[in-house]
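assembly run, all chains below
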Amino acid sequence: MRSTEAASIEAGPAVAEPIPLRELARWLWLVPVLLLVAYVVGMDQGVISRSGMYLHEFMHDGRHLLAVPCH
Amino acid sequence: MPLSGHSPVRAIVVAGLIAGLIAGLSAGLFGLAVGESNIDGAVAVESSMEAGAARHDHGAHATAASDQKPLVSRGTQHLGLVVATALYGLAIGGLLALAFAFMRGRTGHRSDRRLALGLTAAVFVAAVAVPFLKYPANPPGVGDPETIGYRTELYLAMVAGCLAALVAAWRLSMLVPARRRAQRALAGASTFAALTALLALGLPAIGEVPAGFPSGLLSDFRLASIGLQLMLWSVLALCFAALVSRRLTRPTAPRP
Ligand SMILES: [Zn+2]
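ok done. output:
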């Protein structure tokens, strides 16, 4: 390897070590949280957001433009 | 939340959330500028159609029922559009970041930037573009309120099926040696196309555009919807790629 720069262009971060599954598993709790956020925007009709239909109607236009079936 | 400051997953997730928020806000502003006039028009058409066919007792959608005071005013719904796309972008950005964290080092990408751009583009095609071809976005007034549950199930089945097809296509393409780049890409793309075509043929069609609905308004609305999604996903791809490659190559602080 002549210069570190040439080496990084050649190999780059492509040889990045895979992140161990055990380390990834510590972040799995984020998946249901993020899906819940998407659900509240897209589907929820007051089932989870207990403010009744308010949140549903508040984000109504976004749902239509995001192509989620609305009404 | 893991407290170790050096977790690459943390750096990736933060990059995804920031990029998603920026992308969602950009898409919301685009929707305000381009999409809202069509939605306002559609709400007006819907109200007049419901007034015309008053004997049809539709399930009262608060914005639609003209005799009812709306729960949320149209002006507030314009603001809600930006909040909705911002939250949607945040969720997508975070989920995309977790997929990135899993794939990094496990697939034949040449840099973090390329992986971020390729992954975002692939998920856009699978989760948004192909489902749109089968079940396009509809403005208020299009679609029978009675079938909302059924239509939601079909839409979710299409999105989930396309994402599953993407994973299958990726796994299959990984069987091709990495040096045969073109063949690998071709194997993945053709597998994805075949699986999603089968899915689209298998799922029932929905044709609920009312006869009197202005077709120009419908196509304008759908164009605005496509534009909003393109804005969201292209900003997401560019911001995520820039942020994640910078955060991952940043020299790490000396460990305590
Ligand atoms: Zn609606």
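Residues 8-52 of chain B form the longest helix (45 residues).

Chain B touches chain A through 68 residues (CB under 8 Å).

not gonna interpret more than that til we talk
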